[in-house]
Amino acid sequence: MDEKDYELLLNLNETKNITKTAQNLFMTQPAITKRIQKMEEELQCTLFLRSKKGILFTPAGEQILPYAAELLANTRKLREQVLMSQNQICGTIRLGCSLNIAHYHLPPILKAYTDQYPQVDVQITTGQSKHLFQLLNRDEISIAIIRGQYAWDEACQLISTEPMCLVCSRENQGRPLTDYPYIGRHTDSDLSARINQWLAAHDLAQIRPHMWIDSIDACKEMVRYGLGWCILPQICLRDFDGYMEDLYMEDGTPFLRKTYVLYKHLYAELPQVKLFLDALLST
User: Fold this and answer.
1) Which of 101, 118, 119, 211 is deepest in the core (most CB within 10 A)?
2) pTM
3) Which Gene3D superfamilies does UniProt cross-reference here (predicted)?
């Protein structure tokens, strides 16, 4: 077994789906099936079972996963240490970034960084902060840019703080919020709880969302057309031409959304990672 096999095992454990894993690893499904068969022949055991719900790991397969994660992490660290000893800025950065930050904040930073250090391979995974935190704990990414606070015993630095805002169309400005629909947005549990706290403090707890939407851009369009009001972070409102108002909690403190970068001290010793962190924290 080699590094690609370890990566395949971990990805299958994440997706539970051969098709998705093939897409993630830029492989064909027959190629994945062939590698699985080769691993099972080498280890002389069955690693997976196929079901209607997807891939199921056998007990033998589950026992291999922690070793695969450790071996893959150590292989990557060894490669990065060798590159560092060559006294050049190269190597790999495995970055996990929350969807909103990836959309609204990261591109100019990444553009400047890759222009300056073109030999660095920046591998980016975007997703919900909870999922990125899990990847960081499993050493599948080396840096996580996440929204909200998580219990992390290594490096954690605040990147930005922004207000949460009430947004509506100009035509609905000043209209009682109980008179027209509230548009809910699927987000992480911490922010959802704080939104519910704000609603309760303003006698709006009884309001049920007229619609639930995943995409911030879709929320803004619904609001722009006067279909309702919504609560959104300021970072996504730079191009919004409707009405927006910073929100405050019941005790008068601003309703804020914070973004942090989390990473292990070991990775920050790598020059390509340190320089990226410097660029990220200087903006």
Assistant:
1) 101
2) 0.69
3) 3.40.190.290, Winged helix-like DNA-binding domain superfamily/Winged helix DNA-binding domain
Question: Strand pairing of 54-57 and 243-246?
Answer: unpaired
| Those residues with Cβ within 8 angstroms of residue 193's Cβ, 6 or more apart along the chain or in another chain | none
- Output the CATH code of domain 161-257: 3.40.190.290
Judge whether residue 110 has pLDDT over 90: yes
Evaluate if residue 206 carries a pLDDT over 80: yes
User: What would be the CATH architecture of the domain defined by 1-65?
Assistant: Orthogonal Bundle (1.10)
What phi, psi does 2 have (nearest 5°)?
-130, -170
In whole angstroms, what is the distance from residue 270 CA to residue 78 CA? 11
Contacts of 57 (CB under 8 A, 6+ apart): 13, 47, 48, 49, 65
> What is the distance between the alpha carbons of residues 98 and 24, in angstroms, rounded to a whole number?
18
DSSP assignment of the chain, as one string? --HHHHHHHHHHHHH--HHHHHHHHT--HHHHHHHHHHHHHHHTS--EEEETTEEEE-HHHHHHHHHHHHHHHHHHHHHHHHHHHTTSS-EEEEEEEEHHHHHHTHHHHHHHHHHH-TTEEEEEEEE-HHHHHHHHHTTS-SEEEEES----SSEEEEEEEEEEEEEE-GGGTTS-GGGS-BEEE---HHHHHHHHHHHHHTT-TT---SEEES-HHHHHHHHHTTS-BEEEEGGG-TT--SEEEE-B-TTS-B-EEEEEEEE-HHHHTSHHHHHHHHHHHT-
